Amino acid sequence: MLRKLKFIPIVMVSLVTMMMIAMAAYTMNDRRIDYDVELGDTIVPQFTQVEVPFGQAHSDATSLPITGSAAIDIDGDGTEELFIGGGFQQENGLFKFENGGFVPIEGQAGLTKQADGTALGPFVLDHNKDGQADLLVTHPEGIWLYTNDGGSFTAEKLDAQMNDNTTGMSIAVADVNGDGHFDMYVAGYIQNEKIEGLNIFNKDGYGGTSELFINNGDNTFSNETEARGLSFLHNTFQVAFGDFEGDGDLDVIAAHDTGKVRTYLNDGTGNFTNTVNPNSELPSYPMGIGMADINNDGLTDYSFSNIGSTPPTFMVRGDLGDDEPLNRKWMAFIADGNGGFTEEGEAIRIADYEFGWGPSHEDLNLDGREDLIVSQNFVTAPFHKIGMLRLPGRLLVQTASGEMAEVGAKAGVVNRQYSIAPLTADFNGDGRPDIVHINIAGKSQAFLSTGETPNGYLKIQLPADLGSIGAMVEVTLEDGAVLHKPYITGEGLASDSSHVIIAGLGTQKATAVNVRFIDGTEATQEGSFRDETVTFAGAGQ
After folding, report:
1. Is pLDDT above 80 for 225?
2. In terms of DSSP bridges, do strands 236-242 and 251-256 run parallel, antiparallel, or are they unpaired?
3. By C-alpha distance, which of 390, 363, 368 is closest to 481?
4. Torsions phi, psi of 139, nearest 5?
5. The pTM is what?
């Protein structure tokens, strides 16, 4: 018997070793490039990595596995600062870009934590139209408005209360009732201590509630969620306003966790109707919303990350019935102009990638086509506890064929930490988008644009106020081609990238820039533009 027992530790070590080898082999296969897309003459953008000096503190016991981030120009000098939400009982981080890196701003310019919980879902908005960028931030304890007074902020807790069991995950802003004051649709997720599992699709009464708060005109709010047709009970990561039809009304899109994508059409009076979309009846894990005119037809399209090929089936089907399908694939909703969408994730070659969080679109190589960055890795997942098994984050450039080619390693953008959202802004001032992978349970990593390129840019600056939300910018090039660039807010996951539009001009110049605001007014500037910024006064000006 003793002789047999001697072999047990050896057998156990062998089994563990075999499991580790199998897991490593699976992970290596999981993070392969899933599509063979010809780059042709598409330029691979180049980046250099810089660490952000802020270690976000995450604890599974106290916080949802998310944090907030935003690019915000706090002092109006034209260069945006970086805001990162602090974890439980941790102060926020605020950084300026200086001498090639990110430097902490002492005292966070007043953007200090007003509650113990993790700071989530920041949204940049000039709410009082004084030309200065203000900030909305959610916490498990409520929603705060930080008003900017010349580079220093004053905090105010808003009278907009989520349900007792719900944390506000992210904020979408619009003037829903047309009275000139900002209203908020807040994505709701069940509070951390009340989570019963991460794969619950069908349990009645379970989940957080998303809420529509209508401004009373004095920054107090009335809850009109049910009255305006936006009531549902389901854990929700992200919500956004966008004009699906190009008719001047802001519609709503919502990404559930362990659920589906929901789309709601605005009837023109600020009342909404749930409509059919390609994911309406297909359980999924849509964990963030990317927004851009992907096919450049003048309508905003939407992309969604998902669990992809990473977790085994037994871990993710949860309470789905045997006859219920599960969609694991990344999705791309291409607007059809009639308020509907076609799903073209496979057509543009993004469907089959791995686990992903917040997606974000930018023209990274300035060739006039929208590219895609996706965050990856899950802090609580056993398969991502080991660094060597984590995913790299994905960077895909759009080729002339409309397909997306994965070039992250070639571009120098690899992040194997726990990234939640890829925040984008031109932090280093060279006219090209930079990327910050916002990481939890560790330091965020910035990837700064570098290298020579023949392609030029045009920045379009609209006021960061209500009138710009939903605007569509049209940039006419020398050869007559027109680029369509929607004014994007709240893209990704609990984040808000730069609101400054960067249009890639390729080797051409722009001859005209036209802005169609959501209120029907238009503004145009003509000239010969390249490698510069064009500024517009705003809607109705």
Report:
1. yes
2. antiparallel
3. 368
4. -140, 165
5. 0.95
pLDDT band at 308 (very low <50, low <70, confident <90, very high): very high
Q: How far apart are CA 494 and CA 489, in angstroms?
A: 11
Distance CA 269, CA 84 (A): 36
Q: CA 56, CA 42: separation in Å to the nearest integer?
A: 36
Residue 56, beta-bridge partner list: 442
With cut-offs at 50, 70 and 90, classify the pLDDT of residue 2.
Answer: very low
- The one-character DSSP state at 349 is T
Residue written as token pair 């089907």: 317
Q: How crowded is residue 220: how many other Cβ atoms within 10 Å of its Cβ?
A: 11
Q: Which residue has the tokens 């499991």?
A: 19
Question: Which of 475, 472, 477 lies closest to 459, judged by CA?
Answer: 475
Q: How far apart are CA 77 and CA 68, in angstroms?
A: 23
- Residue 388: pLDDT band (50, 70, 90) is confident
What CA–CA distance (Å, rounded) separates 491 from 69?
11
Handedness of CA 501, 507, 513, 517 (dihedral sign): negative
What is the rounded CA–CA span in Å between residue 248 and residue 214?
19
Q: Among candidates 537, 531, 529, which has minimal Cα distance to 513?
A: 529
Closest CA to 298 of 340, 339, 337: 337
What average pLDDT is seen over the chain? 94
